[in-house]
Structures are given as structure tokens and as C-alpha cells.
Write a structure and sequence with these properties.
457 residues, mainly alpha, 16 helices
């Protein structure tokens, strides 16, 4: 992922800083908390705080999944496309967009499966394990792909694998976090997702000449960081839970893809606001490697280190956005205010980037966008959990929420080539127009959440 996208992570010192925030006391056994399955409110509003240890392992796992998943989107995939289809930047959009759309179609099925899954390991943890294994295998396919078709297949499987890991982590947040912890944990989780690509691109840029290592090194490191969550953050045995009364059928599976906005208006409006915001975001980030290459007259193969440096500079802004907005929204019980601050800063950053032709100005725009994305992602995730229509089906509804991010991530790469082609001269693409449109869309998304979501302040 690019330094402008909702993923985060930095050097090991920064990860240690995140760890110190969540482990201010010796890590207690995660299972020491009251077993939520023994509570009559297992599918109701969570009221028991989770331990600091649980939060730490969750953040570390999200860090790992983001490292493995976002680095290809931000950097490695661009390099591989340039190797297999040189001079055809639009191929990146088609590969990325098609894979995202395939994942969007499968995610509600995985969510429903997770809601109904009964095992000694719980409902969510098996999907963390399976997703990590599938993601690693897919990265190997991408590294060895002889053509664009196989590369696209590998990327689709990689998104399915590591996307399932991140979805399971999000489901556990909905299952376990009480209101007073949501902003903080969403902020810390978002921060880990933003720092990860920065560190990952730094690592991957050292292996540009070796396609195998370019994909596998970040992937293996990411999977290794998911392991502690699997073994330490115990999830209660779900075999004691009753299955839903209704049996799965083709009709019920198809129904899991949609919801009635009249019965859950706040969920619907927040979904739409997220959709529009992320459409603007992905319009401005999918082609970031090519954007920096054109604006700084630098070969795309050498952009990786530059993107990493810009990302590292933006790390402080990302930390401020994620942790600051998350903690302050918890403290003041005001969510929508901080989402609007985030989208406003994103719009300003997009305008700066649109007219930037020098490194200092590009860095300034990147700082604003990192701050904005972090703030919005942290606080709106807390809004999502608050407006879920049915907690017993958290996996299903979290997958539906993911549509608001995944569909734009599939549509934007398909539409962006049309935008950058408007008025382009020779090989110079019209990134100015693309960034202005992205900023405008993000601002509109924020306004929808601010004015239409009523049950959250």
C-alpha cells in the first residue's frame, strides 16, 4: 500500500511504541477474562473489557496481515505488472480491480460461515489460520507467475486469504469490545495497518531484482506476526453455542449480501458514507507508484524506496491521527466530529498532491493524507460497531460493511485509467484531475456520515 492508504506500520521501534501503549502492565493470560460464552449477553452489547494482552496480540496480528497484503498492492504488484506487461500501466488497474471484486463477492459467504462456525477454536480463529495459509500460498503463485493471467489469479487468492484474516480480526472486535474501548482499539489497529506497508515496502524494495523474495519475504514476516494471536489470544469454544434456527439455503445465502436500509438507517447511511470516502481514497492511491514516478521523473522500479521514505515521514501524522482521534472520540463520546475532521484533511491533502511536482510538496500532501486516513478509519470503525443491526450476525454485517471499502477498491482502479487518460499528452497521465476527484469524493462521504447518521454523536 502507498503511504496515502489506510494501512500503517513502521520500523521496529514504532511497533515497540505501539506495544508499550497496549501493555502498560504485565501481560495477563487472555483467557483470564470472563468467558463471554458464559454470559447471557453473548450476542448482545459487550460489557466486559478485554485485557491489554488480548489487544496487543490483536494489533500485532493486524500488523502482520497488513504487511503481507498491502505491500503487493502498494509496490510489489506494480513491479510485477511492469515486468510482465511493460508500458501498460492500465493492466495494474485491471488486475487489482478484478481481484477486489471477486473478494467482495465471497466475503459475505465467509462472514455467514464464520457466524455459524462451531469448533473448539471458536468461531473466528479458524479463519485467521486458514486465511494466513491461503495468503502465503497465493504470494508464491504471484512471484512465479509467467503471465498477467496467473498473476491476477494469485492476487485474487492473496486478497481472499489475508482479507479473511483481517475480517476475522474485525469480527472479534465487534464480538468482544465494549463501547468504551472501541475508539482506542480501532485507532491502534488502524495505526498498525498504516505502519505495516511502510516497513513492508522498505523491506520489499531491497528485493526488486528477485520476484520470489519480493513477495515472500513480507508475506512470511506477516504470517509469523499473526501466529501469536492464534496461540495466545484464546477464543472460547463455540461448540456450546446454538446454531441459528433458520437453515442455510440458497435464498438465505443470497440475502446475506444485502440488508434493509429502512430497518437499519444509520447502518445504511454510514455504509454509503464509507463507500464514497473510500472511492475517493482508492482513486488517489492505487496508482501511487506511477504517480510518484511521473511527478519526480524517477523510474518506477526506484520508486519503492522513495515511497517508503515518504511513508516513514508520514508515520508521525498517522500515529497522531489513529491514536489521537481514537482516544479523543472515546473521551468526548463524539465520533462524527472526528470523522469529518479526517475527511476535511484528506481533501486538503489531495489538492496539495494534485498540484505537486516537487518532493517537499509531495511530502506535505502525504502527511495530510496519512493523518486524515488514520483519523477517519479509526473513528468510523467505532461507528460501524455501534450501528450493527444484529450482533448475532456480526460476521455477516461486518462483511457487508467491508463492501463499502472493497467495492471502491475494485471500481476505482477500473475507472482511474479513464480519468488519467483525459487530456494526457504522450506518456504524461492526468493525475491532477484524478486527485481532485478523489478529494471531492472523500469530502462528500464525510458529509453523509455527519448529517445522516443519527444514533451516534
Amino acid at each position: 500500500m502507498s503511504p496515502n492508504e489506510p494501512a500503517h506500520v513502521a520500523p521496529e521501534e514504532q511497533l515497540a511504541a505501539v506495544a508499550s501503549i497496549t501493555t502498560a502492565q504485565p501481560a495477563e493470560p487472555v483467557g483470564a477474562q470472563t468467558d463471554p460464552l458464559e454470559s447471557s449477553t453473548v450476542f448482545g452489547e459487550p460489557t466486559t473489557k478485554v485485557s491489554k494482552a488480548y489487544i496487543f496480540w490483536m494489533i500485532l496480528a493486524n500488523f502482520g496481515a497488513s504487511l503481507a497484503y498491502i505491500v503487493p498492492l502498494a509496490f510489489s504488484l506494480s513491479i510485477r505488472v511492469n515486468q510482465l506487461a511493460p508500458g501498460h500501466q492500465e493492466v495494474l488497474g485491471y488486475v487489482a480491480g478484478t481481484a477486489q471484486l471477486l473478494y467482495v463477492l465471497s466475503s459475505p459467504l465467509i462472514g455467514v460461515w464464520s457466524d455459524r462456525f462451531r469448533s473448539r477454536l471458536g468461531r473466528r480463529r479458524p479463519f485467521v489460520i486458514g486465511g494466513a495459509l491461503l495468503g502465503l500460498a497465493a504470494l508464491l503463485v504471484m512471484a512465479l507467475a509467467p503471465n498477467v493471467v496467473v498473476l491476477a489469479l494469485g492476487w485474487a487468492l492473496a486478497i481472499l486469504g489475508f482479507g479473511t484474516v483481517q475480517a476475522a480480526i474485525g469480527n472479534l472486535q465487534a464480538d468482544r469490545l465494549p463501547e468504551e474501548q472501541r475508539g482506542k482499539v480501532s485507532g491502534l489497529t488502524g495505526l498498525s495497518g498504516q505502519i505495516a506497508p511502510i516497513l513492508g515496502v522498505t523491506i520489499a524494495s531491497a528485493f526488486v531484482g528477485n520476484a520470489l523474495l519480493l513477495f515472500l519475504i513480507p508475506g512470511v514476516i506477516g504470517a509469523f506476526l499473526v501466529l501469536p494471536f492464534i496461540f495466545r489470544a484464546k477464543e472460547p469454544d463455540s461448540r456450546r453455542l446454538e446454531l441459528p434456527a433458520d437453515r442455510l439455503s440458497a435464498k438465505s445465502v443470497l440475502a446475506s449480501y444485502v440488508f434493509d436500509p429502512r430497518k437499519a438507517p444509520d447502518f445504511a447511511w454510514n455504509w454509503l458514507g464509507r463507500f464514497v470516502f473510500f472511492l475517493g481514497l482508492y482513486a488517489n492511491t492505487t496508482f501511487s507508484a506511477f504517480f510518484y514516478s511521473q511527478r519526480l521523473s524517477t523510474p518506477v522500479e526506484k520508486v519503492g524506496q522513495l515511497v517508503a521514505v515518504i511513508g516513514l515521514i508520514g508515520l508521525v501524522a498517522a500515529m497522531l491521527g489513529s491514536i489521537g482521534a481514537g482516544f479523543l472520540s472515546d473521551r468526548f463520546r463524539r465520533r462524527k466530529l472526528f470523522t469529518m475532521i479526517g475527511v476535511s484533511l484528506f481533501t486538503v491533502g489531495a489538492i496539495v498532491e494534485a498540484f505537486a511536482y516537487s518532493l517537499p510538496v509531495l511530502v506535505a500532501g502525504s502527511l495530510l493524507m496519512n493523518l486524515a486516513i488514520a483519523a477517519f478509519s479509526a473513528v468510523d470503525q467505532a461507528i460501524v460497531i455501534a450501528v450493527l443491526p444484529n450482533r448475532a450476525e456480526a460476521g455477516r454485517y461486518m462483511a457487508v460493511v467491508a463492501f463499502a471499502q472493497k467495492i471502491p477498491s475494485g471500481i476505482a482502479p477500473l475507472l482511474a485509467p479513464l480519468v488519467i487518460g483525459i487530456g494526457s499528452i504522450g506518456g504524461e497521465k492526468n493525475y491532477t484531475l484524478l486527485y481532485l476527484i478523489g478529494g471531492a469524493l472523500a469530502f462528500i462521504g464525510g458529509l453523509i456520515i455527519l448529517t445522516r447518521v443519527k444514533s451516534v454523536r
